[in-house]
Amino acid sequence: MTHEPPFFEVIIVGAGPIGLACALECKSRNLSYVVLEKGTLVNSLYHYPKGMQFFSSSDKLSLKNTPFISKEPKPFRDEALAYYRGVAQGEHLAIRLFERVEQIQKSGSEFIVNSSKSSYRSNAVIIATGFFDIPNKLHIKGEELHKVKHYFEEAHFYANQKVLIVGGNNSAVDAALSCYRAGAQVTMVMRGPSIGERVKYWVRPEIINRIEDQSISAYYESSLEEIQDDQVLISTANGSITLANDFVLLMTGYQPDYDFLNRIGVTVDQDPNKTPIYDEQTLESSVSGLYLAGVVLGGLKTNRWFIENSREHAERICDHIEMQREAHA
């Protein structure tokens, strides 16, 4: 005898802060829901560098009716992990971790959601998967070497090593300063003419000072051309140079899982930012009943949406889900 998959009014894909915001909103409206997450709770935040401080203040990272108290106005990674963990556990949110959603198909008015562990049915699906899982690659020779990393965790590993960091925005600057403080010999390579304007305002003067006093080397308007076992080739405004090297950190940004979005039928604009197409008011995608929430809405423009300006997506989406439910009652 075949058992029909369990039914939920809403299935939320992703247990990051915005996925949790959507779960809290569903719970407050008595909409049956489940959150499916391929990794751990707030998986992207977990993979942020240890000791990282947020740009936003804790009140702007807080979720529905649960204040976020931190030692400083701008919280650190570990404080954020504890806060979101406390929200999920304290509110007894229905979250299934380490369960990857593999396919979503529409069957009549329902969705069939197949995961790595089970299948589900639903009238509405919210995609809140962020963009931190797939790094932007340079596609250069040597990028596949073991010494090349697209994620930075902590600096101790790089003590007394020659470290090349590609990029000039927040993640690159945080990695450069952390490695420098740990005793690494740090070199930065940037395509632009200066450190990024979006770098955290309390950090930017420090990285500029370290470059000016030559504690950290920097090559502006330059690019990494090739990575070898013990050296790197860099194209600079004054010609190509070769530097001795132990590790390369490619802090070149990340992108949404476009393969997943394509598989589930979400249309993506072919503009340079590869922005998913969605209704500006309801956040419904090109697939009726399938919604996008949080930073995934920005495509490659990853500085458009943050936790602080995406929290209200949960209310807008649930407003539309309830309106659709009433219309079909």
- Span of the ends, CA to CA: 31 Å
Classify the helix fraction into a percent range.
Answer: 10-25%
Approximate shape:
elongated
Number of domains: 2
Helix/strand class: alpha/beta
Number of helices: 9
Query: How many E strands?
Result: 17
Q: List the uncertain runs.
A: none
Please tell me the CATH architecture of the largest domain by its name: 3-Layer(bba) Sandwich
State the CATH topology of the largest domain.
Answer: FAD/NAD(P)-binding domain
> Roughly how many Å is the radius of gyration?
22 Å
**Percentage beta strand:** 15-25%
Please write the CATH class name of the largest domain.
Alpha Beta
SSE succession: EHEHHHEEEEEEEHEHEEEEEEHEHH
Overall average pLDDT: 93
Secondary-structure blueprint:
Layout: E1 7-13, H1 17-28, E2 33-36, H2 43-46, H3 58-61, H4 77-90, E3 95-96, E4 101-107, E5 110-115, E6 119-127, E7 134-135, E8 148-149, E9 162-166, H5 170-181, E10 185-189, H6 204-212, E11 217-219, E12 223-227, E13 231-236, E14 239-244, E15 247-250, E16 254-255, H7 258-263, E17 290-292, H8 307-310, H9 313-327
Parallel strand pairs: 1-2, 1-6, 2-3, 6-17, 8-15, 9-10, 9-15, 10-11
Antiparallel strand pairs: 4-5, 5-6, 7-16, 12-13, 13-14
What do these coordinates show?
The strands form four sheets. Strands 1, 2, 3, 4, 5, 6 and 17 form a seven-stranded mixed β-sheet that branches. A five-stranded parallel β-sheet has the order 8-15-9-10-11, with helices on one face. The chain has helices at residues 17-28, 43-46, 58-61, 77-90, 170-181, 204-212, 258-263, 307-310, 313-327, and strands spanning 7-13, 33-36, 95-96, 101-107, 110-115, 119-127, 134-135, 148-149, 162-166, 185-189, 217-219, 223-227, 231-236, 239-244, 247-250, 254-255, 290-292. The chain folds into two domains: 7-134 and 254-327, FAD/NAD(P)-binding domain, CATH 3.50.50.60; 137-250, 3-Layer(bba) Sandwich (FAD/NAD(P)-binding domain). α1 packs across α9. The protein is an alpha/beta fold. The model has no long low-confidence stretch (mean pLDDT 93). The protein is 24% helix and 24% strand.
